[in-house]
Amino acid sequence: MFIHNLISLMHTTPTWLMFCILFLLCMTLITSFARIFGKEGLYVYAVIAIIASNIQVLKAVNLYGFTHPVPLGDVVFTSLFLVGDIITECWGRPAAQKGIWLGFAASLMFSCIMFMVVGMQPLEDTDSFFAQSHSAMALLFTPSFSILAASLIAYFVSLWFDVAIFYVMKVALKDKYLWLRSFVSSSIGIIIDVLVFNIFAWVIFSVVAISLDTVMNAYVMNMIKIRILLTICSIPVFYLVKKIVINSPSSSRT
Question: What's the total number of domains in the chain?
Fold first, then answer.
């Protein structure tokens, strides 16, 4: 009963405020995982975040200032660029690339496992709790090839470019201008992710292709605006986490 009442209360809360709370939750988790578990903690966060964002993206909400619905996966997925940059800054480019591979493998593994679960014969009693649970899981985890393929391709390509650009700028600027390196690399990664996902999902792989003009106006521009704003807001967290990692014996930089 408490959970249902809490959800009902959250439904009455302004959407923009819930977005802010979700963002603060992600930033708190990143900071805590880095402080307590170090690099491995950020790996865990990244794996959970990619899986969670792929589920969250199935829900959209109306957000003040935007004419089209906004998918909820934007907040959690955007935090992955921050995590990739933090690992690159504190533990090096190979460690960040390993994190990308872990996220890719975990997302694919999770999809395969849930596909097998959905494929098992459900109970014949359609009114039972388990039968209803099967219907809910089938709706969430029966993958559309276009969405699954576009999501995995966009994730891998965008994060790989983000880490590569951040590393090149780190070397070129001799470890200075952390805010600039984070903003530029994440922004480019975000633009690549949004373009690759939407073009592959709705134009190339889609059975009924949507016009490129519609994709750009309805999906791409809104997603880019939100994610770049979130990136700017996350920069202070980058400085905090770097300071924590440097000063924390439990967060060894090896």
Answer: 1
